[in-house]
Amino acid sequence: MRIVPLLSLLLMAASACDQVTVPSRGDAGPDSLASLWESVDAGPTNFNAVSGSAADNVFIVGDQGTILHWDGTALLPEASGTTANLRAVAVWSDSLAYAVGEQGTILRRQDGVWSMDVPVTSAVLNAVWANDVAAAAVGEQGVALVFAGGVWTVVPNPRNDNYYAITDSNSGLQSVGSLGVVSHIDLPTKSITPSSLPGYTKLLAGATRSGAGAIFVGVEGGYFFWSAGSATKVEGLPSVFLRGVAVADGDVWVVGHEGFVAELPGGQNPTIVPTPDSRWLVGIYAASAADLWIVGRSGTILRGPPGVRGVGAGGVP
Predict the structure, then answer these.
(1) What confidence category does residue 40 fall into, taking pLDDT thresholds of 50, 70 and 90?
(2) Nearest to 163 by CA among 150, 190, 187, 145
(3) Which of 107, 140, 191, 257 is the most buried (most CB within 10 A)?
(4) CA distances (Å), 276 to each of 51, 160, 181, 293, in order?
């Protein structure tokens, strides 16, 4: 496995909760596919999410207010101004990004500086979405927030499901979470309409746009293509807790617990891609099919995919 020093990053230790440390897998020898992932040594912090707007503008967030920024040359920490655990990040451009987390924390990055927005909830925020004029965040206890006109507003919700991911589609914003909930958030009216995936009452933890629709992933290999209010389950994935999903050049990548990574060409027929260890992988950003960023528990940052990126292929210096 290629270990890449991260200059002199001094990251704060993660809380004992939700931290998993396991030995490396036996298949990660110097000639194995697993060994070809580029791995960043960034200390023990739990990294919870990764997002970007381009190959040279990628953000990683984690526990204790940790924020890292990749500018195409170096992966460096940025001051967040908080010690709250950050659960999600959404990047619109070089000059605009949002991060959310525990204690209702909402951070906004403008012109290279992170600042804290006035909190409107104390609930844990697990996911955030943004464009150039609006944003939305969702979290536990059915909390949903909309940012428009410079103000965050709590969206009344008839249900108290926990939400874990949010994405857009041609039908607007969709948020997913516990018990297979899929809720539509309408930005102009600041309203939410909850529904559920038929026949799936397990937790949905990841979501991303795919064409005109979206892909949702969750517990026990749950993988669904959603479009215009209708969901189709894609079979073939093992019964693993899927936590993150990304689309690159028409192919879908999913990540999950126990170091799980799979590629689905055209969104079908998954191929499992070996990784160096069995830590929980919880987030993925695809700058392109040749440039994936994956983050997870206990300091996990991987860049790949192997065979496209890898030893000798460049990457994190």
Answers:
(1) confident
(2) 145
(3) 107
(4) 22, 38, 33, 14
Preceding amide of 305 cis, omega within 30: yes
Quote the CA–CA distance of 311 and 317 in Å, as a whole number. 11
Confidence of residue 43 (pLDDT cuts 50, 70, 90): confident
Mean pLDDT over residues 135-162, rounded? Answer: 96
| Token representation of residue 67 | 């924020």
Longest Cα pair distance anywhere in the chain, in angstroms? 56
Domain covering 32-304, topology: Methylamine Dehydrogenase; Chain H (2.130.10)
Per-residue tokens: 241: 């807790």
Tokens of 135: 């944003």
Angle at 50 between CA 147 and CA 185, to 5 degrees: 30
**Which residues have CB under 8 Å from 108's CB, separation 6+?**
96, 97, 98, 114, 115, 116, 117
- Cβ count within 10 A of residue 170: 11
Q: Is the pLDDT of residue 9 over 50?
A: no
183 - beta bridge partners?
175, 194
Taking CA atoms, 56 is separated from 51, 79, 121, 279, 295, in Å, by 11, 19, 33, 26, 17
Domain ranges of the chain: 32-304
The identity of residue 104, as a single letter, is G
Name the token pair of 151.
Answer: 């103000």
The pair phi, psi for residue 267, each rounded to 5°, is 85, 10
User: Span 100-122, mean pLDDT?
Assistant: 97
Q: What angle do CA 173, 171, 251 make, to 5 degrees?
A: 85
User: CB-based burial of residue 81 (10 Å sphere; 0-12 exposed, 13-18 middle, 19+ buried)?
Assistant: middle
Cα separations in angstroms, 284 against 22, 189, 243, 269: 21, 31, 9, 19
Tokens of 207: 């979501």
Task: Tell me how far the alpha carbon of residue 149 is from its chain's centroid.
Answer: 26
